[in-house]
């Protein structure tokens, strides 16, 4: 069979990028572990057909396997995630691919809207970090026509109602627990959501692998990013000391905290937030 003239180092890079060890990936490729190791060590050349399968199962473009060295992958939007107040490590292949997919959808939708003479969405950049949290909370509720307290008793009902109100003002809300197929689940520990800002096609993504209660907090948090016109990936870490994350957390807490009167979810305790710092944030911003 025809052999593929592939850089052996790219095979190892692709497998490790997909976060799969030798036994796991050998099983996926339906080959012995020794055969996989021989490909990656350059002892044996991989066939063209198997190379295409290799690329497909590691979710990388087939052409990447012919590169002399791995490409430098950078997230196309600000990475606002932290662990103990510090930046996180390299994003997963799922997160890279998901953001690219959402950006492609956003670009298509933006072109569609412009071709139909759509107007800019009024909430994008409507607030700044110099505004008070209370003012932004009040503005969000007024624009969305959100009641002071939820009028229904189930999370799913209120969540869907709020998503509908957000989409009616022109902000797309994408929600799924995996990318493409259930074999590529999204990790809540890696991220909870992200916001893609645009004057005509702003978009929010919510990681639906998360529990129902935290999804509401994330939805409001990402909506605040749209209000500020500051895109980014969020993980809900209360120790995050970035100004925009503290601000969006404070806005989400003020809105979500009222929901605990009707629902059994308290963002203050769930996310490890403290009322006192939140009050300080409100005063500061």
Automatic annotation (TrEMBL):
Domain IrrE N-terminal-like as annotated: residue spans: 179-254
InterPro entries assigned to the protein according to its UniProt record, in alphabetical order: IrrE_HExxH, Lambda_DNA-bd_dom_sf, Rad_response_metalloprotease
Family matches, as Pfam families: Peptidase_M78
GO molecular function ontology, one term from the record: DNA binding
Name recorded for this polypeptide: Peptidase
Organism: Idiomarina fontislapidosi
């Amino acid at each position: 069979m025809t052999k593929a003239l592939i850089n052996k180092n790219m095979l190892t890079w692709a497998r490790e990028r997909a976060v799969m060890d030798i036994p796991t990936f050998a099983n996926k490729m339906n080959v012995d572990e020794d055969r996989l190791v021989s490909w990656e060590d350059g002892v044996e050349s991989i066939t063209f057909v198997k190379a295409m399968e290799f690329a497909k199962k590691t979710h990388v473009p087939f052409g990447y396997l012919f590169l002399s060295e791995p490409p430098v992958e950078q997230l196309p939007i600000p990475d606002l995630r932290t662990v103990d107040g510090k930046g996180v490590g390299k994003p997963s292949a799922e997160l890279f691919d998901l953001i690219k997919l959402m950006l492609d959808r956003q670009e298509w939708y933006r072109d569609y809207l412009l071709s139909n003479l759509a107007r800019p969405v009024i909430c994008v950049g409507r607030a700044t970090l110099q505004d008070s949290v209370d003012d932004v909370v009040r503005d969000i509720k007024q624009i969305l026509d959100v009641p002071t307290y939820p009028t229904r008793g189930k999370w799913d009902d209120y969540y869907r109602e709020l998503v509908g109100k957000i989409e009616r003002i022109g902000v797309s809300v994408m929600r799924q627990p995996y990318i493409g197929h259930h074999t590529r689940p999204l990790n809540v520990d890696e991220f909870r959501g992200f916001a893609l800002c645009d004057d005509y096609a702003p978009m929010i993504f919510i990681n639906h692998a998360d529990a129902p209660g935290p999804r509401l907090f994330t939805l409001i948090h990402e909506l605040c990013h749209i209000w500020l016109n500051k895109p980014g990936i969020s993980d809900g870490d209360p120790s995050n000391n970035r100004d925009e994350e503290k601000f969006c957390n404070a806005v989400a807490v003020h809105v979500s905290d009222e929901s605990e009167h009707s629902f059994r979810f308290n963002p203050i305790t769930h996310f490890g937030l403290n009322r006192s710092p939140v009050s300080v944030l409100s005063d500061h911003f």
